[in-house]
Amino acid sequence: MTSFTDSLIELLGGLAWVPENAAGIIFVTVSVLVALPVFLFMTLNAMVAVYMERKVSAFMQDRLGPMEVGIFGFKGGKRFWGGIGQTVADAVKLLGKEDTIPGEADRALFIIGPFILFGAAFATFIGIPIGYGLVISDFNIGIFFVIAISSIGVIGVILAGWASNNKWSLYGAMRSAAQMISYELPVGMSLLLVVMVVGSLQFHDIVMWQEQHRWFLFHSPFTALAFLIFFASGVAEVNRTPFDIPEAESELVAGYMTEYSGFRWSIFFLSEYANMAIIALMSAIIFLGGWLSPLGGLFRTFNLEQSWYFLEGPWWGVFWISIKAIALIFVMMWVRWTWPRLRPDQLMYVAWKVFIPFALANIFFVGIWELLLG
Amino acid sequence: MLIDYLPILFVFVLAAGFALAALGATHVIGPKVKSQVKLSVYESGVDPVAATHTRLNVRYFIVGLVFIIFDIEVIFLFPWALIFRDFVARSPFIFYEMVFFLAVLLVGYVYVWRKGVFEWE
After folding, report:
1. Inter-residue contact A99 to B34 (CB < 8 Å)
2. Is the CB of A357 inside 8 Å of chain B's CB atoms?
3. Residue of chain A whose Cα is closest to the Cα of B114
4. In angstroms, rounded to a whole number, what is the distance separating the alpha carbons of residues A15 and A298?
5. Which of A178, A182, A318 is nearest to A255 (CA)?
6. B84 at A interface, C-beta within 8 A
7. Which value, in Å, is the radius of gyration of the alpha carbons in chain B?
8. Distance between CA A126 and CA A112 in Å, rounded?
9. pTM value?
10. Is B63 within 8 Å of A348 when comparing Cβ atoms?
11. Which residue of B has its CA nearest to A352?
12. Which residues of A, range 271-330, sit inside 8 Å of B by Cβ?
């Protein structure tokens, strides 16, 4: 399995004008080159997701703006393209805002906070493949890497809340930290089951296993339960409704983001969308067969020729994984505009008294399942 | 390979660079009207009362402690899960081992539950 990084190193090393023994320079160049696609992907993802959220909320709650705003006089049909200018309008508005740092804030930490959250959200993407071989670095500790890097974000949240020197921010940050760490446990335990069955932490191995056997969602009742726990906990880790206690606008104003304005605030906003994409992609890869076509298994059973593998191949893989991830992101938005938020005590109840015991029992039952049937 | 981890650093730098550039742009485009009132702490429109960094509810810290314990357990479980498949084909001993480990963990979990750590309000 060659990753994007490996291929680039090979390519650069093979070029005639690249001097011999320039390994160090090649490494640095490659690292810079591979950072760009991640960055582009994330920016694109944020733009599309913001537009999508606007539209979904507009359809669900009959909001006017996202149905109407045009761009350069192009309004399109009201239903789908209407409101295409909303994302641009948002970006321009955020860029045109004054950058304020409260007088009493701890300036250094106030500035660093959002950067840590943002950087962590971006760095996670290095390990996540979006197709066969389409990964920046194919870590052999894939799942572990994603769990580790994505939990750095909590530090940014705490720093931001503490440095703001604002009571809303501080309480929001404390709640957020308690929530994020509580829901990290069920996430880790649900992924553990997959590692047990596959015997590898690498994303490619996990998808390969699903290609040979079946999607993890359908593997056993316990892995299906693990998917539900993983997805719900993931939504909670991203701090989205109904788990948005940290930024509960009716009680905590905006939680840890209260004192942030303009583009500093939108860094938080971008990280939220990045984290949503991470959870959706992780669920798609680990439980929903990643870049495998949902039709693939069906056609393979008919023993058709290679060319009849319907809608399969490297680029169709990107299509399928995107469809799965977007469907999951849509579910997150759907949930957001449908259910009210939980109370903090209910939140802790769900994490510690429901998800964790079920996830622990799941480890046990999957062990038995593999012992008897595996 | 260790080189695989180098992009992490650069992505961090690029993310920070993008954020800094955008912040720079807001400094150029955006208004710059500072006032005493604007720079004061936001507390729903009234003057701030009392210090912010006071004592917080101990529940947050207890949850933090319990999290660390359980998270380390989960990290211990990962190496086990990784070799589970290969070993279980030969003998189910590795499974019983982990059942014992989980049982020990369960005792701690029940203790924490009974002590009311998960009771909020």
Report:
1. no
2. yes
3. A353
4. 44
5. A178
6. yes
7. 25
8. 22
9. 0.85
10. yes
11. B118
12. none
Pairs of residues, one from chain A and one from chain B, whose beta carbons lie less than 8 Å apart: 222
Residue by residue, pLDDT tens for chain A (374 residues) are: 566 666 766 666 666 666 666 666 766 777 677 777 777 777 788 778 887 887 787 778 777 666 666 555 555 555 556 666 777 777 777 777 777 777 777 888 888 888 888 888 888 888 888 877 777 777 788 888 888 888 888 888 888 888 888 888 888 888 888 888 888 889 988 888 888 888 888 888 888 888 777 788 888 888 889 999 999 998 888 877 777 766 666 667 777 777 787 778 888 888 888 888 888 988 988 888 877 777 765 555 455 454 445 556 667 778 888 888 889 988 988 888 888 878 778 888 888 888 988 988 888 888 888 878 76
What stretches of B30-120 show up as alpha helix (H) in DSSP?
36-39, 58-90, 93-114
Tell me the C-alpha to C-alpha distance, in Å, between residue A334 and each of A57, A248, A326. 8, 18, 12
**Minimal CA–CA distance to A169: which of A181, A159, A180, A183?**
A159
A348 close to B (CB below 8 A): yes
- Residues from chain B contacting residue A193 (CB–CB below 8 Å): 81
Number of helices (H) and strands (E) in chain B: give both, helices first.
Answer: 4, 0
From B103's Cα to the closest Cα of chain A, the distance in A is: 10
Structure tokens at A290: 């990643």
Identify whether the C-beta of residue A267 lies closer than 8 Å to the C-beta of residue A118.
yes
Residue B86, chain A, CB below 8 Å: the answer is yes
ipTM of the complex: 0.84
- Nearest chain B residue to A139 by CA distance is B4
Q: What are the chain A neighbours of B58 within 8 Å (beta carbons)?
A: none
Q: Domains of chain B, with CATH numbers?
A: 2-114 (1.20.58)
Long-range interactions of B75-84: CB distance < 8 A, separation 24+: B75/A188, B76/B101, B77/A189, B77/A192, B77/A363, B77/B101, B78/A144, B78/A192, B78/A195, B78/A201, B81/A192, B81/A193, B81/A195, B81/A196, B82/A195, B82/A199, B82/A200, B82/A201, B83/A199, B84/A195, B84/A196, B84/A199, B84/A367, B84/A370
Residue type, A170: L
Question: Which among A197, A224, A220 has a CA at the least distance from the CA of A209?
Answer: A197
Residues in A closer than 8 angstroms to B81, CB to CB, are: 192-193, 195-196
Angle ∠(A336,A38,A82) on CA atoms, nearest 5? 45
